[in-house]
Amino acid sequence: DVKVTQSSRYLVKRTGEKVFLECVQDMDHENMFWYRQDPGLGLRLIYFSYDVKMKEKGDIPEGYSVSREKKERFSLILESASTNQTSMYLCASHTGAREQYFGPGTRLTVT
Amino acid sequence: GENVEQHPSTLSVQEGDSAVIKCTYSDSASNYFPWYKQELGKGPQLIIDIRSNVGEKKDQRIAVTLNKTAKHFSLHITETQPEDSAVYFCAASIGNYGQNFVFGPGTRLSVLP
Questions:
Q1: B97: Cβ–Cβ under 8 A, 6 or more apart, which residues?
Q2: Do B93 and A98 touch (CB under 8 A)?
């Protein structure tokens, strides 16, 4: 089975802190994604990557950056956390066939 | 930009009844339409998908229909069970190669015993 893991299920950070969210997939997928999920808004794309060292902005990239140094790992970085970044963060991956697999999510609270 | 609308936002049905969730999309180039189920505390899980070259797909109690002309697609769950209670999301592929997705806002389904 495809497995997408995220480094933390719950995180509490202070305003201004630099935050790293890690995602690892074990099925050699080329495409990886970071979404945030907020009530009533569904899933919104932050960044995505089609290959190692490649990244593209999604719909809401402001305040975020990403890193993909290895094919299986895609990291989301909050350069200076703010309270409006309190959310559920979901990582996903898929091959060209596009069946997308999600991790369990990281619930981030910024105080 | 591209948009997916989803209705209803909440749905309550009696166990054994059917549930229908409807989505509309705006990008005529969309050609792949997945449905996800998200249980409490978990990430979304793909439950069924349909590609633009077919009008209907069925997997046991779950079916999806697609009307490309009207840009509508729907999820049908028959003989609902309490374990079907969850949030369901529809999505449509977008982008130059259809590798990205735009999601609907979700439907919270409650199956009452």
A1: none
A2: yes
